[in-house]
Design brief:
Number of domains: 2
CATH superfamily of the largest domain: Ribokinase
Number of helices: 20
Largest sheet: 10 strands, mixed
Length: about 525
Amino acid sequence: MPKFIRLNFNIAFMKILCVSQIRECDAFTIDNEPILSIDLMERAASRLFEWIALNYDKNCSFVLFAGSGNNGGDALALARLLYNSGFANVVLYYLQVVDTASNDCKTNYLRLNKLQSITVIDIHENDPLPNIDKNSIIIDGIFGSGLSRSVSGYWSKIIKHINLNATTIISIDIPSGLFADNNLNDNKGEIIRAKHTLTFQFPKKAFLFADNNEFVGYWIVLDIGLSKEFISKVETSNYYLQSDYIRSKIKVRNKFAHKGNFGHAFLVAGSYQKTGAAVLAAQGCLRSGVGLLTVHVPQSAYVIMQTAVPEAMLFIDETELSSCSIELFASYSAIGIGPGIGKKSSMQNALQRILENYTKPMVFDADALNILSDNNEMLKLVPKNSILTPHPGEFDRLTKKHISGNDRLVSQIELSKTLQCYVVLKGAYTSVSTPNGDVYFNSTGNSGMATAGSGDVLTGIILSLLAQGYNSKYSALLGVYLHGLSGDIAEKRIGPEALIASDIINSLGNAFIQLKNSI
């Protein structure tokens, strides 16, 4: 997650709206603020200008490409604001993509042309491609979020020309050529490759998929003052997790509480040569507040676990089966299984027995998911409201091969609905899908967390929260947010390259403190 993404930390602004809803929000704001549409465009352009003025010197050269829609109108207004504020080297290319421009685009075109000293160059279809100085900063305002078909013909040549010759590209609202809601059919050669995307009010769903990172770059949300009333009432299935929402879900501990009040977790983890996974998951569980933890490990892990995690109790079971009795399950508040367990037949039998005898929500990770992938009949036994935590490879083994992040998200939602479970699909913006089809994208985390054992720590955190009495939804959401926040705290201290899973565990305490104390 880029450090300089800025969002309005208001619960209402968690929502990720589709393009049609954003248009409705614009219209509602215009009607009810009230404000003229041209003045709302000016407000948006002012937010763009403020960000650029904070990040670039007035001696920089800017070349703006404006289309004939409202995205182009934003670019035209921005060019005027830059020029009027002393940015002397401003050139604008006006691309006449359609014969009739939007009304607000026309207005800003006329306003800009009244300035005698600014260079405005009209480009018609099949005109010679413009010269682009690699030292210039390119502002992309060609196509906005309302694009309904892939860019083709001459205008695709313009986009390719910009990508080939520009060093720094800033896109207004969305990179031209990228679909905001569903980019399954995008032509990847016809999309602007931005360094920064300055988007308005809401992140676009397309920003959250790894395959679009080369186009979106670092994205920043600019608050342009759209109606809070509309945003609070509009319904959506997609959300972006923020600290206010997460902080509101953390339980306050009673002064007279004891360890029995915070649950007893049972973690099935580790195998010969994979004891580290059990250590990391156990430490993550304990550092997240669980009262008691018992870890099921083989005899080979006994000394390591007693030394590395003295706070945990151990259940030594070489056959894997004595841990599967109904009587034993009654002792535990929640069960998590998977980190480092392997796929040997005894473990497959153990998982089968657990699924046949345990009906409360569980946490499934790593090899537990791989066993389920190899035994599809077991999937039908997964308790409702359980939490599955696959990375993309594990998820594809559970379901099918996917061609894009958007394609995988569709399958993720389908799996959650089918199993009536929560699916935590790990990645840069870890997504949590719910049984009713809602999806929450995580806002914390960084590239340093792409390291061995990071997922084991997450399993321990989520298991701890589930054992403490958080429901499955909040166990998953709190878990991924705290996991990412701990990684961010660690990354600030040692950098992404040096970050290891143990650093995430060691930062969990500070993550809780920062979250509870944040404003």
